[in-house]
Amino acid sequence: MARSKSDALIAVGAAASAAQIFKRGFTARFAQAFSRMALRRGMHSGSKAWLYAGAAASGFKLLHSVAGRKPEVTRIKLRKGESLQITEIRRAK
After folding, report:
1. Which residues form the domain of 21?
2. For residues 50 and 57, what is the distance between their CA atoms, to the nearest angstrom?
């Protein structure tokens, strides 16, 4: 249970952040984890191979964020009495 409003806000922010992480695809999550691990190993052990692997994974992560799919955002202003229905049409396999 949150002790104050700021604690509750932090908990909600952490939950939203976790939801964004799990919403991303497997390759994005893998690239994130691998680049972090490789850069740490490269800096702490002095291994150039791990450092280069981490830099390459970070580059892939950057490329994925720039060239990856963007969510579609549509804004519609509704007047009083109007409604909106959202349905999902499944793709045929």
Report:
1. 1-93
2. 10
The candidate with the shortest Cα–Cα distance to 57, out of 93, 31, 91, is 31
- DSSP assignments along 8-32, one per residue: HHHHHHHHHHHHHHHHS-HHHHHHH
CA–CA separation, 32 vs 65, rounded Å? 11
What is the C-alpha radius of gyration for the chain, rounded to an integer number of angstroms?
Answer: 20
Residue where the block lists tokens 């950057």: 62
pLDDT in tens, 37-85: 898 888 888 888 988 898 888 888 788 778 766 777 778 888 888 887 8
Kindly state the DSSP code that residue 80 receives in the 8-state scheme. T
